[in-house]
Automatic annotation (TrEMBL):
GO terms under cellular component: membrane
Pfam families per UniProt: MFS_1
Protein's recorded name: MFS general substrate transporter
SUPFAM superfamilies (alphabetical): MFS general substrate transporter
Topology within the bilayer: Multi-pass membrane protein
Record's keyword terms, sorted: Membrane, Transmembrane, Transmembrane helix, Transport
Subcellular locations according to the entry: Membrane
Claim: Membrane is one of the keywords in the record: yes
Location (main, coarse): membrane
Coiled-coil regions, chain positions: none
Transmembrane stretches, start-end: 45-67, 73-92, 104-124, 136-157, 169-188, 237-261, 273-292, 298-317, 355-375, 387-411
MF-aspect GO terms: transmembrane transporter activity
Organism, as annotated: Hyaloscypha hepaticicola
Domain of life of the organism encoding this protein: Eukaryota
Amino acid sequence: VRKIDFRVLPPLAIMFAISIIDRINIGSARVLGMNKELELTGNRYNVCLLLFFPAYILAELPSNYFLVKFRPAIWLTFILFSWGAVLTGMGFTHNWRVLAFLRFVLGIFEGGMLPGMVYIISSWYCRFEVHRRIGWAYSVGVLSSAFAGVLSYALGLMGGIRHMAAWRWVYSASGTTMAVAIICYFWLASFPEESRFLKAEDKDLYIARLERDRGNSATEPITWKVLKETLSDWTTWMTWLLFTFTNSSTYALAFFVPSILTGMGYAGLKASLFSAWPYLPTIRLLWIGSYISDKTKMRIPIIIFQSILMIIGFIRINQVRYLGVFFATMGCQCNVPAQISLAQMNAIGSARRSIVAVVTVWGGASGGIIGSLIFRTQDALHYTSGLYTSISMASCIILGMLGWAPIITFVTSGLKKVL
């Protein structure tokens, strides 16, 4: 298992972390001068944020299909290399419409990263090992969120070098993504039955372990039959809805915390720097929560506790602003791997898990669209409507989780009586 951890988790975590930095650095670029230079007046900034997500949604299901067809190392490194090229181009744009178009293209390439990562991890591990692994890989993404602000601060100091504005360096430096893609191509393992780094007897032993845990280990292609069955299951869409609520707040914080901090008196580069610190205690809570979840084999109580933290955080942003950002960030970010793990462990068969991973992450993209819009420019300095919207969505997550087990029990018992 440790050998598999080394070949599966670090490359996936690195690629996911890069995807997080590359999609949210627009927030730091905005406060470093992009807003003025590209004339992002009115709702233009919100449009640039929003266009990323329809492309992200459209790309996810085809991406997981190609993931199985071409192997993880080929497909994931291809999309990683491609979005690195797109981001490099963003550093040289002089028109907000071009920026908006490139954000759409970025969504096409990044769309396959998170569902692909989730599917690969759930293919390699037993059911109650998955939350810790997804949590560990996701925590590297959270860490990247923390240091995205610090990195932007450092790159912002390069403003004026080669006659380039500070915000352009934020994008141009993303060209290193293409070099990382080449390294990950040789590092990332394939699916269990296709792996070459395990000896034959080790592979047989490990596949038998997966068979004992969940009754199947083979990687199945997505078929129209399985797709129809999965998409007609109401629990699939309940998962999507609750994950949408979580990610609406997650993305809103990522996009607008630098602006909120600017309203607190932290200008420009300092706003990017101070946005980093809330992510550090978030990682610790994420590790503790995922360990308890796998150990106790319970996920819903963990999700409810983290949703309460979200509510406390968004309430406190209006009162003790910076402390509120800490609590809200901890609740939002820790709920993401918890809800993904809950969805994956209730899906039977690798093809169904792949589709459920996609639908769940559709909730992430849908949440991104909402998160792009709820903190409106005209609501600055207090962003009251965005905060109350986030509190309402966190409350819905709690209600959904409290009703999840009784509803499933009721439906299951009713079906048994009918049959």
